[in-house]
Amino acid sequence: MSLKGKTAIVTGSNSGIGLGIARELARAGADVVLNSFTDRDEDHALAAQLAGEFGVAVRYIQADMSKGEECRNLIAQAGVCDILVNNAGIQHVSPIDEFPVEKWDAIIAINLNSAFHTTAAALPMMRAAGWGRIVNIASAHGLTASPFKAAYVAAKHGIVGMTKTVALETAQEPITCNAICPGYVLTPLVEAQIPDTMAKYNMGRDEVIKKVMLERQPSKEFATVEQLGGTAVFLCSDAAAQITGTTISVDGGWTAL
Ligand code: NAD
């Protein structure tokens, strides 16, 4: 599978799943635009490292995905967008009657609204190029719910709905739009929660992972960022040209329960 000549923009891609997807797209030959809201030397160094490793062009463009105008500017500044991966996302856990309004607003803005803005800005570029792939990173929480995650579950269900609508609007064009729904993935963010959880439950690392973190993941294994990257590359392949408006779960059986 070669994505040589295609340019992929991956939002929220200086760590975790976004970076894993960017790496697999670069491995498949795509030029890549990395993004986050920071503008540190290490962000640009990451782009240079990926470019060197895979022999593709990689740029880092700073843009805050909580702001609609910056989402649209990210696409405009990139100048070309064959593959759009809407990945940037945050979480906050709280009962709904205590949910801080600013956390609700930030989650809806970053996890849902940003994809509206980037998609609206990228579609004309895909139409001009005569080819496009939109891959939205939803979650098992785009298909099921958990208590205390009202904003996240609402945003992820929202992005699954938007995925279907965009797919219908582009159905007769060589453009597809799908959502990947990961279960628990061992990203730095999740790794950082392990020591506290071990202390809270007085358990060892393996016990915390299997009994607490992966309670709802029947495989009792984390999904990996490489597996998510591979799924994104598949959705960009010719084999996936008739796959549109749907979700692919990478969740170790979570949503089969
Ligand atoms: P992460 O914290 O490692 O990565 C999130 C990325 O988004 C980072 O690059 C961060 O810099 C970026 N980001 C955050 N706020 C931003 C903003 N305002 N503007 C631009 N970029 C911003 O987390 P992750 O686990 O890799 O999550 C990535 C996506 O995968 C999210 O949408 C998340 O909801 C989804 N997801 C994660 C898991 C999991 O278990 N880790 C499971 C299902 C879905």
Describe this structure in words.
The chain is an alpha/beta fold and 257 residues long. The protein has two domains: 211 residues, Rossmann fold (3-Layer(aba) Sandwich); 37 residues. The protein has nine helices and seven strands, in the order βαβαβαβαβαβααααβ. Strands 3-2-1-4-5-6-7 form a seven-stranded parallel β-sheet, sandwiched between helices. β2, α2 and β3 form a beta-alpha-beta unit. α1 crosses α9, α3 packs parallel to α4 and α4 packs parallel to α5. The protein is globular and about 55 Å long. It starts with 6 loop residues before the first strand and ends in a 7-residue tail after the last strand. 46% of the residues are buried. The model has no long low-confidence stretch (mean pLDDT 97). Nicotinamide-adenine-dinucleotide binds next to α1, α4 and α6. Pfam families: adh_short_C2. Belongs to the short-chain dehydrogenases/reductases (SDR) family. One of its GO terms (molecular function) is 3-hydroxybutyrate dehydrogenase activity.
Produce the secondary structure layout:
Elements: E1 7-10, H1 16-27, E2 31-36, H2 41-54, E3 58-62, H3 68-78, E4 83-86, H4 101-129, E5 132-137, H5 150-169, E6 175-182, H6 188-191, H7 194-201, H8 205-213, H9 225-235, E7 247-250
Parallel strand pairs: 1-2, 1-4, 2-3, 4-5, 5-6, 6-7
Helix pairs in contact: 1-9, 3-4, 4-5, 7-8
The structure holds nicotinamide-adenine-dinucleotide.
Largest sheet: 7 strands, parallel
CATH topology of the largest domain: Rossmann fold
Distance between the termini: 33 Å
What's the SSE pattern? EHEHEHEHEHEHHHHE
Helix content: 40-55%
Ligand catalogue: nicotinamide-adenine-dinucleotide
**How many alpha or pi helices?**
9
In terms of structural class, how would the helical and strand content be classed?
alpha/beta
Q: What is the assigned CATH homologous superfamily of the largest domain?
A: NAD(P)-binding Rossmann-like Domain
Tell the overall outline: globular
Q: Nearest-angstrom radius of gyration?
A: 18 Å
Organism: Ruegeria marina
Pfam family, one: adh_short_C2
Family: Belongs to the short-chain dehydrogenases/reductases (SDR) family.
GO molecular function, one term: 3-hydroxybutyrate dehydrogenase activity
